[in-house]
Amino acid sequence: MFQQIEYKGTLQEGYALLLKQLEALLEGETDQTANLSNAAALLNQFLSEVNWVGFYLYRSEEGELVLGPFQGLPACVRIPMNKGVCGTAAFERNTVRVADVTAFSGHIACDGATRSEIVVPLIKNDQLIGVLDIDSPVHNRFLEEEQQHLEQFAAVLTKYL
């Protein structure tokens, strides 16, 4: 099991270090599964108070998201576009940050312990690749500043997909 990365300093300094580590892990690798797997493991190691970190990949021929590499308990395998937090973020192509999942109409509960969630779409060359999904057992875990950092993480990652 990974240990959480310990850093002293601001959230911004921590994410700057995380982005450097991501670049180092992905540099020179072109395999999407390997890159997504390492990205999920890195985030799971870095983030505190999370219970699921992973990706759902867009399958245009099926019009849905399909489970990709992740860290956490077994998860829902298929999510229709515009359903749940992941499907909404993918359909709208915008990050969706949910402070309380019980208040999100149509939330898909894969893990009953989840209380808050953030989903960041992965877009490259104006094409939807999938979404980064992070769940937490803590209400309102993901604040606006962290959303911006996770969107930067997703932007760096998509360069390698």
Automatic annotation (TrEMBL):
<dbReference type="InterPro" id="IPR003018">
    <property type="entry name" value="GAF"/>
</dbReference>
<feature type="domain" description="GAF">
    <location>
        <begin position="31"/>
        <end position="161"/>
    </location>
</feature>
<dbReference type="Pfam" id="PF01590">
    <property type="entry name" value="GAF"/>
</dbReference>
<dbReference type="InterPro" id="IPR000614">
    <property type="entry name" value="FRMsr_CS"/>
</dbReference>
<comment type="similarity">
    <text>Belongs to the free Met sulfoxide reductase family.</text>
</comment>
<protein>
    <submittedName>
        <fullName>GAF domain-containing protein</fullName>
    </submittedName>
</protein>
<dbReference type="GO" id="GO:0033745">
    <property type="term" value="F:L-methionine-(R)-S-oxide reductase activity"/>
</dbReference>
<dbReference type="InterPro" id="IPR051330">
    <property type="entry name" value="Phosphatase_reg/MetRdx"/>
</dbReference>
<dbReference type="InterPro" id="IPR029016">
    <property type="entry name" value="GAF-like_dom_sf"/>
</dbReference>
<dbReference type="GO" id="GO:0005829">
    <property type="term" value="C:cytosol"/>
</dbReference>
